[in-house]
Amino acid sequence: MSEQGRACVVFDDHLTDYDFGPSHPMAPVRVKLTMQLARELGVLDQLDIVGARPCSEDDLALVHTPQYIERVLKLSKHPTHADLTIGLGGDDNPVFAGMHEASSLIAGASVEAARLVWTGERSRAINVSGGLHHAMPGRASGFCIYNDIAMAIRWLLDHGAQKIAYIDVDAHHGDGVQAMFYHDPRVLTVSLHESPQTLFPGTGYSTEVGAKGAEGSAVNVPLPPGTSDAGWLRAFHAVVPPLIREFAPDIIVSQHGCDSHMDDPLTNLMLSVDGQRASYLAVRDLAEELTGGKWIATGGGGYAVVDVVPRAWAHLLSIVAGRPLDPETPTPSQWRADVERLRGQPAPSRMTDGRHARFRPWEEGYDPASWLDRSIQATRTEAFPLNGLDPTL
């Protein structure tokens, strides 16, 4: 395969310098274990590994306020201080030395992924360290300091993209990305997440559809706690493909937080690795159908750092590479031994949870007694007419 035809992962070891401390759930070891697993499975042989440069302060100011960037810089140099008015300090976003440098490098990695795909240098690109979708223009939130996804989307808009579809499958609402493009009809943000009634950040209702002049550009599918593979995939396919097809994007950007898994300690969804893998394939299929394959993927949440994250994202890396792993693939013995040594717990032996990612298509009927179906129907009712679609079909 020619270099231009190959996909890539934007990565170097400094991307794991984003570190809130040993007791924080956002542990950088989850990225290290992912890359090690992907390497030992041969996935990285199918991907070019590309480095990245940090975003400059001027670049960051395209989506963040100068005052916020200045405070991050100061706190990064004086990590014993905090500023809770901008979300820095406390349990969610503790301040750490080098915070600005680590965060701006993750943002730079997602911008580099966008550049590589948009210019045609690579067919697809992924930044597994990215996906920090909660960061707001002037505030850190939900383990996210700089919003790398918004940076990538802004770069694409500034370099000629006319229509960008953003798909967020994290268990938490992609509120920061939505907020930054809520007034921009060129960016369609679609988020499937656990109901804001039961999970941070408390936003992402179906009634959030975009600001005046951009009505229909935000789409939210709030899912009941306990939703498993069949329900999640039913919701995805009832909402996402028809909207993305109607929007006809130039490129797809996606966030793949795997905290929707049944073993995740912070959320209440019940997906398996097999269901998550099916979601990655569905996003890939939309990119192949609609954008000539132009697809930028990121990581995101995911706090079962041994049992879930490495397997889920190794699958994602393999799908980006164009060589999806067989779910029945055994995990390498050396990786399992390293996990036990590093974490003191046994690692999964296979790349599957033994589930089958089947679902009942929406076209087979709506059940008004089902919370899930009522949620799907509410989203279709709110968003479809604004995008020229009939919610009853």
Report on the structure:
- With about 400 residues, this protein is α/β, with parallel strands linked by helices.
- The chain has one domain: Arginase, Chain A.
- It contains eleven helices and eight strands.
- It has helices at about 30-40, 55-60, 65-75, 100-120, 150-160, 175-180, 230-245, 275-290, 310-320, 335-345, 370-385; strands at about 10, 50, 125, 165-170, 185-195, 220-225, 250-255, 295-300.
- Strands 2-1-3-8-7-4-5-6 form an eight-stranded parallel beta sheet, sandwiched between helices.
- Helix 6 (about 175-180) links the parallel strand 4 (about 165-170) and strand 5.
- The longest helix is centred in the first third of the chain and has 20 residues, at about 100-120.
- The radius of gyration is 19 Å and the shape is globular.
Key descriptive features of the protein:
single chain, 393 residues, alpha/beta, Arginase, Chain A, eight-stranded parallel β-sheet, 8 strands, globular
Architecture blueprint of SSEs:
Layout: E1 8-10, H1 29-40, E2 48-50, H2 57-60, H3 66-77, H4 99-118, E3 124-127, H5 148-158, E4 164-168, H6 175-180, E5 187-194, E6 218-223, H7 229-247, E7 251-255, H8 273-290, E8 295-298, H9 309-321, H10 333-343, H11 371-383
Parallel strand pairs: 1-2, 1-3, 3-8, 4-5, 4-7, 5-6, 7-8
Helix pairs in contact: 1-9, 4-5, 7-8, 7-11, 8-9
